[in-house]
Fold tRNA threonylcarbamoyladenosine biosynthesis protein TsaE.
Amino acid sequence: MSEKMEVVWTVEDESGTVLLAETLAGWAMPGTVLALDGDLGAGKTRFSQAYAKGIGVPGIVNSPTFTIIKEYKGERLPLYHMDVYRLSEPEADELGLDDYFFGDGVTIVEWASLIEALLPPERLQIYIAHLGGEARRIAITGIGPRYAAWCGQLQGMGAK
Ligand SMILES: Nc1ncnc2c1ncn2[C@@H]1O[C@H](COP(=O)(O)OP(=O)(O)OP(=O)(O)O)[C@@H](O)[C@H]1O
Ligand SMILES: [Mg+2]
């Protein structure tokens, strides 16, 4: 299995995004890092909500824009949900993000590319782009053997 692999998951509507998130949630383990990016309003937070539900977080997961980081207690694993849209890289550096990335839970970072230098080298990158209406093109890049293998599994499920 190669160290880096990219697949594209095209969805016609919200249920396709939810299915992807639930699938990935099923593979979650301590130290999993998902780096989310994409068009404004494309569905980064919607994806995160479905993922949270998938790892057994009860209740509603909202966009953490104003709090930067929210922690949730999932049935299987803790979830650390971040939105770094309003942060500069030096500000983010102050937060000691490695404690989350290399901790016991799963970290989802919305707008992750804004703090790329602070991200762990191995991660799953997800870019959600509008295709018109509810359709989305979701590009998924696994960096590192574990995440590249997930992309291989997604390919087996129909991702291109
Ligand atoms: N295929 C789809 N996938 C995800 N969300 C969709 C889809 N089709 C429609 N939607 C709707 O689009 C909206 C996406 O909003 P969401 O807050 O998740 O976007 P976002 O990328 O987090 O936005 P922001 O850039 O402001 O953080 C939701 O209202 C959702 O119901
Ligand atoms: Mg959002």
User: Anything to note?
Assistant: Residues 11, 13-14, 16-17, 38, 40-46, 63, 110, 134, 136 surround adenosine-5'-triphosphate (ligand 1) (CB under 6 Å). Residues 4-156 form a domain with the Rossmann fold fold (CATH 3.40.50.300). The chain has a mean pLDDT of 94. The chain has one domain: 4-156.
